[in-house]
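Usage

Read records sequentially. Each one opens with the input sequence:
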Amino acid sequence: MDRNAVFVDNRDRLFRLAYRMLGSVAEAEDVVQESWIRWQRASDVSAPRSYLDRIVTRLCIDQLRAATRARQAYVGPWLPEPIVASEEAGPEALHGRRETLALGFLALLERLTPLERAVYVLREALDYDYDSIAAIVDKKAANCRQLYHRACKHLSDGKVRSDVDYEAARAKVEQLLAAIGAADVRMLERLLAEDAVICTDGGGRVRAALKPVRGAASVARFIVGVTRKAPADEIRIALVNGSPGLVAYTDGRPVAVLGVSSSGGRIDAIYAVLNPAKLGGVPALC
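and closes with the structure output:
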């Protein structure tokens, strides 16, 4: 068996698993690198894919348990580190179910225990059956089924709605960009669902709302107020975690990434990542 070739064949999937578990590109890369080291040391592996999935999942569970206190002390809403790509890459460039990659979905997973999150991600994002999940997390299949249903219950009142149709979602982002550019509160209100919400993650390093802003009118006023106080040089449409979103730049550097969730013809949630520590992987303008 060519160990290098096997790992290369599995690497993208392992990263997708680790990122959905951790919500951090850097931490996911570290986990994948550690899995490579352990893979090189392993002997007599009859099922490489399952073995690698098991390593990555367990490393992620350990990482989440270690990070619990830090995330509880985080200043303001915690949002995942975004993955930004040009639209030329296409939404299919990020494999796995696109809705399980959305910023809102990943933020919602913070409600779960590390083990619940592992079972839920393996089931929802990667379509594993319970027997396969049981082998990965070292639990019985019946226990995994219970963990999955418990996770669903924890998430039931915070379900992230999203247009499945890419073009419909992009059209809403185009309209949002136009409304922001015009600083038009009424135009923004018409785009937003009545119960729309915006979450801003500044991590205590830049100015951001410490609590989610709710309601179409409040969200519209908040967006216009922020853009007037700290206008960006340029705002572009990009793929944000596989879906149309916005990236704001100042002096060519990304200063904000906006994930946008829309359904039923309206935008119902905006997730704004402003923390500079989470924007290091976002490409600067050439």
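Summary fields computed downstream for this record:
- The chain has two domains: 3-73+103-158, 166-278.
- The mean pLDDT is 92.
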